[in-house]
Amino acid sequence: MTTARPLRIGITCYPSVGGSGILASSLGEELAARGHDVHFISYERPFRFSGDGPRLHFHPVEINDYTLFKYPDYTLPLSVKMAEVSRTVRLDVLHVHYAVPHATAAVLARSMLPPELQPRVVTTLHGTDTTLLGRDPGYGPAIRHALACSDAVTVVSDWLREETRRLLAFEGPIDVIHNFFAPRRPRRTAAEVRRELGLGSEAMLLHLSNLRAVKRIDLLLDAVARVRPREGFKLVILAGGDFTPFVDHVRRLGISDRVIVRQRVNEIEDYLQAADCGVFTSESESFCLSLLEMMCFGRPSVTTAVGGIPEVVENGVSGVLVPPGDADAVARAIEGLLGNPTKRGELGRAAEQRAHAHFAPAVIVPQYEALYRRVCEAPVAAGPR
Ligand code: GMT
Known about the structure:
The protein is of the alpha/beta class. The chain has helices at 19-33, 75-89, 99-111, 128-131, 140-149, 158-168, 190-197, 217-225, 244-253, 268-274, 289-296, 309-312, 327-338, 341-358, 361-377, and strands spanning 8-12, 37-42, 56-60, 93-97, 120-125, 152-155, 175-176, 203-209, 233-239, 259-263, 277-280, 301-304, 320-322. β6, α6 (158-168) and β7 (175-176) form a beta-alpha-beta unit. The chain binds ligand GMT. The site of ligand GMT has 19 residues, from α1.
């Protein structure tokens, strides 16, 4: 039996709160736990990155604010750092999460190196890098070029693969590797969290997101304002973005006493275990990692049936899917779950089993490892294919 040698893997992602950063950080930690040497390259330590370990390293990218530039540049210092790390530790693979500007920087970094030091570039598209920037004429051609120069391109759902073909006219191979979530042990008990939130007998609805426009927080608030009985629940929002723009909306709807917001929470598991169900009202979503986070704790969600979400939950089996943009449908579905604890329990158990069977680290991480091995065996993709 031959044992494959551990790989040296560079990972670049957005370190701030966001699904792609959470996924990339967990992937790095899982790879290191499997014996690979992992090097994060970014302007900050990734959110939820637990820190340097024997095989986990962080290389900061210094950004200069030269007065001669109207806008600070990140892409070039990132590419220089990627090349420097590749050269120093001899990376086998440079895996970039979210194409803009990471894939372009990786392709540039590779071209700065002599052939024997060039890492394979793997680009993972997460969502708006295709659906928003991919259709922008100011970005689309650069993204398409970086994908064509990557040694492998992955996406987080079948739906995103089709969107990438359609919007970026990219015809090269695309591997679908779904997201995974590796929950950490909660630090507090559910009772302690509920006490912190001031919850009595009310059900706890949970929403976690960066609050960007695509998440349709307006619809989320409209929907919960219609849930009856209004004293039967509280909505907890773990906000990875600024909630201030929605405060007036909450007040106008008369639900200030029903909505609790917590900003930039790191210990999301504390809240996931304390919740009764999740609510997601996005108008587009390539996967919805937060939905999976709920599933991992055996909690069902009401969610709009958009993008890759139907690949994550099956309607009526492991969650409840509603049409996009329909606040009434969201409200009725929440009432259906809150009013029927037996059904809620069944859906939650099915959700947890599904998460375990399809979206666990043990299922997904080997798919990335196999991909890395595959690209390492192939010649480097130096130019557009
Ligand atoms: O694409 C984005 O809007 C940002 C990105 C992120 O960094 O959070 O979110 C996307 O990637 C997540 C991780 O793969 C997915 O779970 C989200 O569904 C996806 N967001 C969208 O498609 C809007």
